[in-house]
Hints:
Blueprint: E1 4-5, H1 9-15, E2 17-21, E3 24-29, H2 33-42, E4 44-48, E5 53-58, H3 62-69, E6 81-88, E7 94-104, E8 107-112, H4 117-134, E9 141-144, E10 149-155, H5 159-167, E11 176-181, E12 184-189, E13 198-204, H6 208-225, E14 231-234, H7 236-246, H8 261-264, H9 282-287, E15 293-299, E16 310-312, E17 318-328, E18 333-340, E19 350-355, E20 358-365
Parallel strand pairs: 1-3, 4-14
Antiparallel strand pairs: 2-3, 4-10, 5-8, 5-9, 6-7, 7-8, 10-13, 11-12, 12-13, 15-18, 15-20, 16-17, 16-19, 17-18, 19-20
Helix pairs in contact: 2-7, 5-6
Amino acid sequence: MSPNRTPLYDWHISHGDVVDFAGWEMPVRFSNIIEEHMAVRDAVGIFDVSHMGRIHVRGKHAKDFIDLIVPRNVKRMSSDRAGYTYVLNENGGFKDDVIVTVLDNDHVFFVCNASNRKKIVNWLLTHLKTIRSVFPEFDVKLQDVTFQSAMIAIQGPAAPELMKRVFGTAPARWRVAHGSFEDYDVLLTGTGYTGEVGGEITIEIENKDELKKVAIAVWQALLETGSDLAVKPCGLGARDSLRMEAGYCLYGNDIDENITPKEAGLFFSPFADNEKKWYIGKDSLETKEPENIRIGFVMIEKGIPRHGYDILDSKGEKIGWVSSGTQSPILHSGIGMGYVSSEYADPGTELLIQIRKKQVKAKVAKFPLYNSERYGVSRQQPS
């Protein structure tokens, strides 16, 4: 089966290095991954994230339905709010991690990972069918608009200014704004995958040719309008290194159906509401205590950790594994995350990473791995 292409594919193939990612032909870089990474930390970068799954959930019981699917308390979310959460299987493992955006009481916008889109759509449809077998009047309609829309992430300290210039508005963090581009409506959410301020914009157009034309026009407008802001187009390479510095999980590497939110360090409010009476996976999750927990670490000695490498104690005994790793452009050293037993999880604990035939020193560190006073959403603003 041929990979899918986003509406921006034609621009990417002319300007960047395109690879197959989760069944989509996506740009891994346009220039230099480190330059793209630093553009987001210091200025602003734009990413094509149109491969992500986008699902509208509409109807009188839309919020009630999603509230059963995820641990977050969706019914308490007010209109024009977005939030991170996850979909669990019956055993409490991750089916996916998702962004839920409540547009109004009858409309939830659901964004999932590209690799899990079909799985999540089927999961939603299966449980909707089960509910309707008991409550035939349950009013929920699902619409997968992944192939009828484009989605662009605009990330970095200058992102809000760039969004205001192009769309007339910018969302606050975890909030929604409604803007426009020419004669088209644009949904802006204060979300992202880099640790920086900014947002993600979605444009829906049913006609594929028109969608492609408008998506490329938006992309070019962001680059041209943001030229004085030092904007750069960014690919999957920078997206991966940015999310690792911030401590964000990648499905299939750091979380999967056999890992629980307790193990991943994501079982807390508002991602999950312990006061909710029920959601799929709740019973299993509450009875399981994690054997291993996710940590972040920074290399003390030279070396780049990679997915699947062993984590060892000071005696060289295996105590866990690396789930993600890279070289940090901010720290100029190797960084990563992985799973170890709780006795080795305290920040400052020294570990060894088995990198090929060498055992290389590392230490446990809190997320984000960068200096949060200088970078990221909590950075100190100039006075």
